[in-house]
Amino acid sequence: MSERLLDVDNVEVEYHGHGLRGKPFKALKGVSLDIRPGETVGLVGESGSGKTTLGRAMLGLAPVTGGAITYNGRDISHLNRAQRRELASDIQVVFQDPYTSLNPALTIQQILTEPLTVRKVGKAEAARRVRELLDKVHLPPDAGQRLPREFSGGQRQRIAIARALALSPRLIVCDEPVSALDLSTQARVLTLFREIQDSTGVAYLFISHDLAVVRHLSHRVAVMYRGEIVEWGDGDQVTAHPQHPYTQKLFLAAPVPDPVAQEKRRADRRRLQAALAS
Amino acid sequence: MLRFVLRRLAAGVVLVAVISTVAFFLLYLSGGNIARRILGQQATAATVQQKTHELGLDHPVLTQFGSWVSHAVHGDLGSSWFTGQTVTQAITSRLSVTLSLVIGATLVTAVVSVILGVLAATRRGWVDRMVQFISVLGFAVPGFLVALGLVTLFAIDLHWFKPTGFTAISASPSLWLSSITLPVIALALGGIAGVTGQIRGSVMDALRRDYVRTLRSRGLSETRVVYKHGLRNAAGPALSVLAVQFVGLLGGAVIVETIFAIPGIGQIAVGATQQGDIPLVMGLVLATAIIVVIVNLIVDLLQGWLNPKVRIRS
Amino acid sequence: MTAATLPPDAVPDVQTLEQTAHASLFRRLLKNPTGVASLAFLVILVVLGIFATVLAPHDPNVANATNILQKPSGTYLLGTDGSGHDVLSRLLVAIQPTLEAAALAVGVAAVLGITAGLISGYYGKWFEAASSWTASLLMALPGIVVLLAARAVIGPSMLWTMVVFGIILSPAFYRVVHTEVSGVKHELYVDAARVSGLSDARIISRHILTVVRAPAIILAAGVAGIAIAIEAGLDFLGLGDLSRPTWGGMLNDAFSHIFTAPLGLLWPSLAIALTCISLTLLANALRDELERSGTPGRRRRRAAGPVSIRREPVVTHDDPAAAAAGEELLHVTDLAVGYDQPDGSVKTVVHDVSLSIHRGEVHGLIGESGSGKTQTAFAIMGLLPSGGRVAGGSIIFEGTDLAALSGRQMTGLRGAKIAYIPQEPMSNLDPTFTIGSQITEPMRVILKIGRAEARERALKLLARVGIPDPERTFNAYPHQVSGGMAQRVLIAGAVSCNPDLLIADEPTTALDVTVQAEVLDLLRDLEAEYHMAVLLVTHNFGVVADLCDTVSVMQNGRIVETGPARSIFADPRHPYTRSLFAAILEDSEPRGPLTPRELQP
Fold it and tell me: pLDDT confidence of C306, banded at 50, 70, 90?
């Protein structure tokens, strides 16, 4: 169980500034974590924390300017385009926005077949696999003939999950996959994530700004603030008994859906604020 | 703000320099043929060579270019090969005429388009549909056809205006007005059609924004919201469209001046082209480039004033 | 969390979606009357051009000095020109070279512009900078001036002139393609394709070209019209190919005889004008069809008649605090909101909503997307988007029915008595005015105070809402402040004229959770200070628990349950409310660390 699927070691991501005299911007300032096979690692942070950048760096969509990302023992921080394409059957992605992560002009069949055709899967085999994927995400088999706009947000996320599963990856980067969904839909999609992990053993990097969502699904949790990881440990510990002041602030800032409990949390938060200010 | 102006100015100078360079090399690269074209196919090789030498065309192109640049910087653009008049004089004597035509047409276009565009965007209904219809039609029909139509109808059939000729404003303001009315209308009509549609679009776009609803929620009257906030936001795109229109009008002036026999630079452009009077053509290209750069600079400055995001970097 | 109690997902009924939405642009064009007409004209024109030499009644090049400037007659259907040529024949024969030249120019422009646009849009970097600059260069000079200059060098060769013309026109294609491509490049589905392992070539052909195809076709039609116009212009000036009949050349000839035979101007003018108009109309029709393809088609349904409102009983909790509450400021009864559809029916988004809010009360309106909560808020404010209207019921505010007021009367109430806090802070501030002016302008209008006093009050307000440097923010523009600050500014603006009723539309949804907590604190403080009635629209139960005294739960345009917040949280009765609570993750078990058993699926 100590074998690591993915290892992030002191990774830095720096972007150039705009124009001739722009200042460079460091989105990640040396972050380290690891993901074991079949594990869900939750990554929590607010805007500007760098959580999305870390996910994109793992996918090869953001430039790694320092440190290393290792997958299955192999350094994947600076792969060329062809090498990166080979990784498609290992690392996949589900994005946040269900409305722009599917090409509106393609049918579901075409969207789900796309990763398969790259791997030279035959037409009949691809069709079979598409039916299998739709079944796995609990969508009817005739969904393949329809366009994305005929589906709700929650259903589109299921399609995005099906696409991610097409090549049977070992790790899926989930970038705020339920943040744009309604409350009841969120619950259903999270159940689906759990179910898929139970049946296929895939690992997740689960990025979110919501501690409650992350707690529900993650074995271990990392909290990010301004490009650094400020807390990293077992999920039940980090989300229920945070040690770092920022995590505590984050924890206390989220309102509890219970008026009595929320009043208490408000008081706790005020006390923390006072303590930090002094 | 100053840095913004200087950057734009520098970009403009570079543009003029590049245009002049490219134009020069393209025009002069057919060195030998020029002399032959002027003298005609019958001329002997000797006469052609003599002419070539006379026009300085037997020097290497780069030398010719260097010489042209050093003269141009002092305002000497050479002389026309056919009339002998200096290019600078030929152009400056006619520039004001063309400019009055084009600037007049731009102003007319701007005023009418804004009024029609805003009306169409705010009133909707039949006003909107009518404006859209006129807009498509006016845009589709080439400007010079309109000019021909106007000349035929108003000048020849109805005798309201003189069909041709131009009176300088210094000589007689009323005659000047009468002589430029038809040409300006001819130029402006095509412009109005195209620009109105764009302004209607950008006003409607501005009024669809979230902040318009928020401003209404603060209790501001509809007039204020549309005319103070909506127009201010729509002005930027509208100005860009007018700037593009100005460039188009400069081109349109060439044909309109020919039709109405107006002594502007468009008129000599046609002659210079037919004859292959290259110094004159060079001068015209340079003059046009400078005018366009100045206009774009003014528009950029106005855009900067209108849109804080352009002049203030956060 | 009990997933078993949640209803399963179902693919929605898609009756209103026309099958033809899948159909190609071309087939859709054929249903558009202007499209068909212009296409038909152009097809006829092409056919006439191809068979011109056969169809022409006379030899177009035969000049007959005795027949000059004849009026239309039996022999010469459109008359003769200044040299005795038959006008009709020349008109026909001129079609083919005209169209060929235009096609050449458009072809060159399209190939250059589209290729450059694709490469610079997708790959960016130095190529983008170089091509953008070149495009500006090409657009800087009027087309005619460049053509004239080219003509001076090239001579009367139409071929090369059209190639040059194509180069001049290419920036139009470049700009359009570049904008589309760079817009699409950042879409998430392109990222997903890259992660799926697609090569650049595949991504471009599958995802990017499809976006570019339609705009390029539309532009080609428009540019062809311009090409024909300018080509005719050059011919008119006598700078074209003088050896063949051209429309512009015919105009030139007719113009020189304008005093004696002005009718001669008509025929070539008509030819040019009609061709240009049909090309422009074709382009417009294509664009209309393209825009229409994004929305579901209209079905010919029989008009649904008056608004249909579902009435179902509302689960109401008793409110022990009701008697002690302040005066009732807002009383909504049986409110219905509908949108007029293109086929005449009305789509009801809010059915018989009733609620009441007292002074000092924070009333939460909670629901998921599509529940109608925001529509209810807009209806109360009188700010429904176009097409929407109050279709039934009453909105009594301080004794007046808002639904019955005119636009002007409603404007008088807004800001002064009823205030609004929007959801997205950045898009709700006018980017061209300073923050200070946006706060003070309504204050000066409503409170009738001068500039200096308004500025002073605004600065105090900005400090009150927690902005660290009020003066700096006052003078700044919206793009210079953060989202959290912008929201505070909007809150300041909302309370600036001491309103009685505050409507907050998901005021913290777009903010980070730590900022959200601060803004909620701010709202609570302001509510206590100004003693307003507050209607808080949200989808987050935590926000409701933090801030609200009473709650109404909305589903599908109706209120299903309402009552004091504590009572609803302690004892939710309606099945929908209970399903919402079941979906909340707060109380769920944390996952705990990875166990060896989980590694064996």
Answer: low
Boundaries of CATH 1.10.3720.10 in chain C? 34-58+84-292
Task: Give how far B136 is from chain C: nearest CA, Å.
Answer: 7
What number of CA atoms fall less than 13 Å from residue B286's CA on the CB side? Answer: 23
Range in B188-202, C395-409, C438-452, C527-541 the model is least confident about: B188-202
- State whether the Cα torsion A54-A59-A62-A63 is positive or negative: positive
pLDDT at A163: 94
Displacement of CA C117 from its chain's centroid (Å): 23
CA–CA gap between residue B101 and residue B86 (Å, rounded): 24
Q: Is the pLDDT of residue C19 over 60?
A: no
Q: Which residue type does A139 have? A: L
Max Cα separation, chain B?
A: 86
Inspect the interface and report whether the beta carbons of A60 and C516 lie closer than 8 Å.
Answer: no
CA–CA min distance C360, chain A (Å): 18
Sheet containing C418-421: order of strands:
C315-316, C558-564, C550-555, C362-367, C533-538, C501-505, C418-421
**How much is the pLDDT for C536?**
96
Q: What is the pTM of this model?
A: 0.84
What is the dotted CATH code of the domain comprising C34-58+84-292?
A: 1.10.3720.10
User: Is C491 in CB contact (< 8 Å) with chain B?
Assistant: no
The pLDDT > 70 percentage for chain C reads 91
pLDDT tens sequence across B109-152: 999 998 988 888 888 778 888 888 887 777 778 878 888 888 78
pLDDT value at C540 more than 60: yes
Short-list A97, B218, A261, B4, CA closest to C493: B218
ipTM of this complex prediction, to 2 decimal places: 0.89
Mutate to test the interface with C, among B211, B229, B313 (most CBs of C within 10 A): B211
Q: Which residues of chain A have pLDDT under 70?
A: 1-2, 18-22
Residue C587 pLDDT: 66
Lookup: tokens for C248: 């512009």
Q: How many CB atoms lie within 10 A of CB C431?
A: 16
**Burial grade of C148 (CB within 10 A; 0-12, 13-18, 19 or more):** buried
The per-residue pLDDT for B296 is 86
pLDDT at C320 over 80: no
What's at C36, amino acid-wise? Answer: V
| Domains of chain B and any CATH numbers | 96-313 (1.10.3720.10)
User: Would you call C25 an interface residue with chain A, using a CB distance cutoff of 8 Å?
Assistant: no
Question: Taking each helix axis from N to C terminus, what angle separates C33-50 and C266-292, rounded to the nearest 10 degrees?
Answer: 140
Query: Which of 2.60.40.1930, 3.40.50.300, 3.30.565.10, 3.90.226.10 is the CATH number of C310-417+533-586?
Result: 3.40.50.300
Which residues in chain C have Cβ-Cβ distances shorter than 8 Å to A101? 188-189, 192
Q: Is the pLDDT of residue C556 over 80?
A: yes
Residues of chain C with CATH 3.40.50.300: 310-417+533-586
Name residues whose C-beta falls within 8 Å of residue C3's C-beta, 6 or more positions apart in sequence.
A187, A188, A191
In eight-state DSSP terms, residue C197 is: T
Written as one string, the DSSP assignment of C231-275 is HHHHHHTT-S-TTS--HHHHHHHHHHTTTT-GGGGHHHHHHHHHH
DSSP B13-36: HHHHHHHHHHHHHHHHTTHHHHHH
What order do you get walking across the sheet with A25-35 strand by strand? Answer: A25-35, A6-15, A66-71, A74-75
- From C516, C585, C599, residue closest to A213, measured CB to CB: C585
Subunits close to A (at least 3 CB pairs below 8 A)? C
- Strand-strand pairing, C346-358 and A40-44: unpaired
* Nearest to A95, CA basis, from A200, A186, A185, A207: A207
Q: Which of B218, B247, B284 sits opposite C414 (nearest CB)?
A: B218
